[in-house]
Amino acid sequence: MLTIYDAAEGMLIKHEGAAPITPAAVWIDLLNPTKDEDLLVERALSISVPTREEMSEIEASSRLYQEGGGHYMTAVVLHQPDPSSDPPVGTPITFILAGSRLVTVRYAEPRAFPMFLNRAQKKDAACMTGTAVMVEPPNVVAITETATVTGGTGRFAGATGSIEVERVFNRATGVTTGTLEGWISTADS
Question: What are phi and psi of 132, to 5 degrees?
């Protein structure tokens, strides 16, 4: 799937499918790309998009390279397809800086991508170039907190559960935004 993100008014605007790659595009995300999607990006940006096989076969010493005006980095990122049952697995993701644009090539959906997009599609994202998309803006910290519930008092005596908070904290403004997910079970339920 080809997704293009344009920079506008300090946030990323999402375009899926056959949208043209315009000068406003700062991030082009290729998730399980088709050959036609690869070719579209290659022609528009005059770069070479690595195949899944090329990304998997690359040696550790060759994960950073420059080719045809693009700066390439392939990283093996831990990813857990189903957190309730699957163990984490490594998946290669290639990041390409081509001029002022970032291209990502991936065949999995690590949780960091939707977390980042949740923040970057808001007005305070400061993602006006591909480099800014790839490098965390100053004064902004991504935080994941996990809590295990092992008891309580009163009606929550004997409660169990798990809670995960994913949030972004802006040190400059003191504002934090995020999501809370989890479950709590009481002894009575």
Answer: -65, -30
